[in-house]
Amino acid sequence: MGTRESVPHLVRALERARDPYVQAEAAAALARIGDPAAVPALTGLLAGGPLPARVAAAGALAAFPVEAARRALERALDDPNQLVREEARRALGGTAERGGGDRPPES
Fold this sequence. Notes:
Elements: H1 7-16, H2 20-33, H3 39-48, H4 51-61, H5 67-76, H6 82-92
Helix pairs in contact: 1-2, 2-4, 3-4, 3-5, 4-6, 5-6
């Protein structure tokens, strides 16, 4: 999977997968594809998914230069978990690479 035709399937994986690492991989794939149709699902995951998926969603949103992604990342700066806050800060600072949502934050 790596084309725009994959986006609906990857969004379903974000929304339905019970494994947060499957969600994280789907988030990274969506960032690599770069279709803005993925932003609502990624922002939803960032707001309410399990920790590994939230970190991945924050990194993935760096690939989308749209207002909704920026607002979600700004809200994530107040996330209760430090890893999510760090990834959101990195994404907002433009240091996250496209598709880098699957990388763990640096120490």
